[in-house]
Amino acid sequence: MTSESVQSLIDQLEAEAAMDRPVEATPEIGIIMGSDSDLDVMAGSESGRPGAFDVLTEELGFEEQTDYETAPEARFTFETFVVSAHRTPELMYTYAETAEDRGLDVIIAGAGGKSADLPNMTASIAYPLPVIGVPVQEKSLPSVIGMPQGAPIVAVDAGKSFNAALSAVQILARQHPELQERLLAYHEGLQQGVGEVSRDLHERGTPGFRDT
Ligand SMILES: Nc1c(C(=O)O)ncn1[C@@H]1O[C@H](COP(=O)(O)O)[C@@H](O)[C@H]1O
């Protein structure tokens, strides 16, 4: 028995898949997570480490798409859902199966706990669409990456949704030169920051550097 709230999501995904919208109107990246308790890791937390949402919106010019009738201004977008292999298997199946028809080019899937099966199951159903798995905790790593031969998934280290988003954009950049430029600009900024910190540490010495 599927609950009403899950069934309405399934219906919406299926309706979107049948619509054949232009690529400019649909998200390129789908972000799914096993629970909203994963949001700080998957999106980034206000007080802690940045995540996929942060790098996509702040560094790479993406917008989050929440409404499919009125697409955001930004050319490249992502969507976010809570989907669980264990709690809502039908929703996971529909999400993965409709992903390509809904315009997605890559999925980032994160799950926590020891039985983090959402990324690997999504990868199998969405195949050949690439899925990047994010183990939300260290203990989730074996179940995210442990796929049998012939059933691929790519994955990042525990908690590194930030890198998952960069990898997703690397995939998209093969077809979109403007994304390649944004990735290079991000990398240049990263290098610039390291260079500045290095000079500061060297010139002020360790105690002086630590004092600020
Ligand atoms: N690993 C999975 C799956 C799945 O893989 O299908 N569904 C939920 N979860 C994980 O359970 C943890 C606790 O979830 P709750 O906080 O909702 O109890 C989360 O980290 C979630 O990703």
TrEMBL record:
Q: In which pathway does it act?
A: Purine metabolism; IMP biosynthesis via de novo pathway; 5-amino-1-(5-phospho-D-ribosyl)imidazole-4-carboxylate from 5-amino-1-(5-phospho-D-ribosyl)imidazole (N5-CAIR route): step 2/2
- Domain PurE, by residue range, is 27-194
Q: Which residues bind substrate?
A: 35, 38, 87
Q: Which reaction does it catalyse?
A: 5-carboxyamino-1-(5-phospho-D-ribosyl)imidazole + H(+) = 5-amino-1-(5-phospho-D-ribosyl)imidazole-4-carboxylate
Any one biological process term the GO annotation gives: 'de novo' IMP biosynthetic process
User: Under the GO molecular function aspect, what terms does this record hold?
Assistant: 5-(carboxyamino)imidazole ribonucleotide mutase activity
Pfam families assigned: AIRC
Keywords, A to Z, come to: Isomerase, Purine biosynthesis
What EC class does the entry list? isomerase
Query: InterPro entries of this UniProt entry?
Result: PurE_ClassI, PurE_dom, PurE_prokaryotes
According to the UniProt entry, what is the EC number of this protein? 5.4.99.18
* Isomerase found in the keyword field: yes
Similarity annotation: Belongs to the AIR carboxylase family. Class I subfamily.
Task of the protein: Catalyzes the conversion of N5-carboxyaminoimidazole ribonucleotide (N5-CAIR) to 4-carboxy-5-aminoimidazole ribonucleotide (CAIR).
* HAMAP family attached to this UniProt entry: PurE_classI
PANTHER family, per the entry: PHOSPHORIBOSYLAMINOIMIDAZOLE CARBOXYLASE (PTHR23046:SF2), PHOSPHORIBOSYLAMINOIMIDAZOLE CARBOXYLASE CATALYTIC SUBUNIT (PTHR23046)
- Provide the protein name: N5-carboxyaminoimidazole ribonucleotide mutase
Name of encoding gene: purE
